[in-house]
Amino acid sequence: MTSISWMSRIVADAEFSGLHGCPAVGGYGALVSVNFSVKNWDLDKPAPQVELAHAPIKTNGNRLVGFAVPETVIPFTAGRYAQSIGTLFQLVLSNSAIEELERIRNGGDIALTLGLRGLVTCAGDAQRIHDDVTCRINQSEWLKFLDVCGYGPTLLFEIPLPLDAAVPVTNAQKELSRARQHLLQGHYQEVVAACRLVLESLTEQLQEGEELESAKKLRGDDRNAMTTLQRELMIRQAAINYAHVAHHPNGSTDPLFDRSNAIMLLGIAASLVANGLRRSGPV
After folding, report:
1. Residues 6+ away with beta carbon under 8 Å from 158
2. pLDDT by residue (tens digit) across 24-50?
């Protein structure tokens, strides 16, 4: 908890109370909620007034994320009675900023620092506010924030979905959605395993098993004769082979898959699903 003081007397305590998401044009809207516990003030003395400025938000490593704008410059006025006042600080994050925070979070919780900046004025005098509020955000709160601000749909390639509500989403699409959720939760081994199921389901759904076997033979005998489709199927098969160890880790000398591996394969799987469903016509 951080205190705002005037002449060594506490005016209010400030504490992080939540992170909320909101849609934003060209980025992702973040609303950082700070609660001010305002102390009572003697009426026979001039009451100080707090004026907030833009608040720098930084990572634990002291890297600047951006500047959050307070929804109101003067969040409260001290008076006879103590009171609790909530204020929102608004910030728009770019996709690259979210991606970097995701890398730092690495599937777990995340802590940010909001710098309270501004002035406390009283009876013509003023002193600066220069205090920090620690914002500890657990995994579930962060995932909810990502969902509300619309982060998910732009993470992957666009995947065709059924236009008719009566038509079920395919197994490949379901597994792809599951893989994405694993990524957000930091379960990278599970991401790779789910991607293998995505690609195997796609081959089965599009009934391309025989074409895949033909591609395998040509690859060994006359790869120059391979069609574009057959080459695409070999890419799909290579990705399946890459993910094989995620289902059978015992006996492998490689370390477990990390975030970079998971993102790579998820991007490949998403692209192959999008292209395969596009080629097959209306879902």
Report:
1. 274
2. 998 999 999 999 999 998 877 788 999
**Mean pLDDT computed over 13-25:** 95
* Among 36-50, 136-150, 216-230, the least confident range: 216-230
Three-class secondary structure assignment of the chain: CEEEEECCEEEEEEEEEEEEEEEECCEEEEEEEEEEEECCCCCCCCCCEEEECCEEEEECCCCEEEEEEECCCCCCECCCCCEEEEEEEEEEECHHHHHHHHHHHCCCCEEEEEEEEEEEEECCEEEEEEEEEEEEECHHHHHHHHHHCCCHHHCCCCCCCCCCCCCCCCHHHHHHHHHHHHHHCCCHHHHHHHHHHHHHHHHHHCCCHHHHHHHHHHHHHCHHHCCHHHHHHHHHHHHHHHHHHHHCCCCCCCCCCCHHHHHHHHHHHHHHHHHHHHHHCCC
